C-alpha cells in the first residue's frame, strides 16, 4: 500500500455491473494507496459499464490523485508514470494494460485543493466482450492492478 502498487479486488462483478447498467452506481473507487509512507496519495476509479466514449461497451479505468497529508513536501505537478492493468486469472496470464506519463499541464496532476483531483485514464480500457468472455472474471471477481513508477522520486528526507 506504500510502494506505489495497488491490487484492487472487485467482488460481485455481475451485481455491480447490473447496478452500473441501471445507473444506480456508475463508478467505484478503490481504497487509497501511496508512493511511499510520506508520498503521493492516490486511488483508482472504475466504471464497469463504461464512461464517456466507452459507455455501454467498455470497462473504463481511471487514476486519481488525492489530497494527502504530506503534499506540501512533494514536487508538483505529479509526474510519475502510471500503469493500469486488468489481471488475467487464467493460466495464460494475458493481463491487459495501458501506461501513461501524466500531462504536466492537466489539472488532474496538480496539487489537489479538494479531496481528490479529476480522474485521468482510459474510457476504452477493455471491451466488455473481451472482459466477459475471457478468464478475467473468476468466481464473480476481477482484479485491477495500478502501478506508479517510484524509481525517480526524491527521498523525502533528503533535506534533513
Observed structural traits:
ubl conjugation, mainly beta, coiled coil, 2 helices, five-stranded antiparallel β-sheet, 160 residues, isopeptide bond, 9 strands, Apoptosis, Tumor Necrosis Factor Receptor Associated Protein 2, Chain A
What features would you describe in this structure?
Keywords: Apoptosis, Coiled coil, Isopeptide bond, Ubl conjugation. The chain is mainly beta. The chain has a single domain, classed as Apoptosis, Tumor Necrosis Factor Receptor Associated Protein 2, Chain A (Sandwich), CATH 2.60.210.10. The chain is 9% helix and 32% strand. The chain has helices spanning 13-21, 128-133, and strands at residues 5-10, 28-29, 33-34, 41-47, 58-66, 82-86, 96-100, 120-127, 142-148. The strands form 2 sheets. Strands 2, 3, 4, 5 and 8 form a 5-stranded antiparallel β-sheet that branches. Strand 3 (33-34) and strand 4 form a beta hairpin. It is globular and about 45 Å long. The mean pLDDT is 95.
**Named CATH topology:** Apoptosis, Tumor Necrosis Factor Receptor Associated Protein 2, Chain A
Outline the low-pLDDT stretches: none
Number of strands: 9
Helical stretch count? 2
| SSE-based structural type | mainly beta
Quickly give the CATH architecture.
Answer: Sandwich
Amino acid at each position: 500500500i506504500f510502494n506505489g502498487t495497488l491490487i484492487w479486488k472487485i467482488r460481485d462483478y455481475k451485481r455491480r455491473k447490473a447496478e452500473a447498467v441501471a445507473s444506480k452506481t456508475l463508478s467505484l473507487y478503490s481504497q487509497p494507496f501511496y508512493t511511499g509512507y510520506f508520498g503521493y496519495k492516490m486511488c483508482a476509479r472504475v466504471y464497469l459499464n463504461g464512461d464517456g466514449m466507452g459507455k455501454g461497451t467498455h470497462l473504463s479505468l481511471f487514476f486519481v490523485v488525492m489530497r494527502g497529508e504530506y503534499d506540501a513536501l512533494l514536487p508538483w505537478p505529479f509526474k510519475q508514470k502510471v500503469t493500469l492493468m486488468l489481471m488475467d486469472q487464467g493460466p495464460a496470464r494475458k493481463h491487459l494494460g495501458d501506461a501513461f506519463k501524466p500531462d504536466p499541464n492537466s489539472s488532474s496532476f496538480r496539487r489537489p485543493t479538494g479531496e481528490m483531483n479529476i480522474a485521468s485514464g482510459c474510457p476504452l480500457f477493455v471491451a466488455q466482450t473481451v472482459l466477459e468472455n475471457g478468464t478475467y472474471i473468476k468466481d464473480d471477481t476481477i482484479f485491477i492492478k495500478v502501478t506508479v513508477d517510484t524509481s525517480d522520486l526524491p527521498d523525502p528526507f533528503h533535506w534533513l
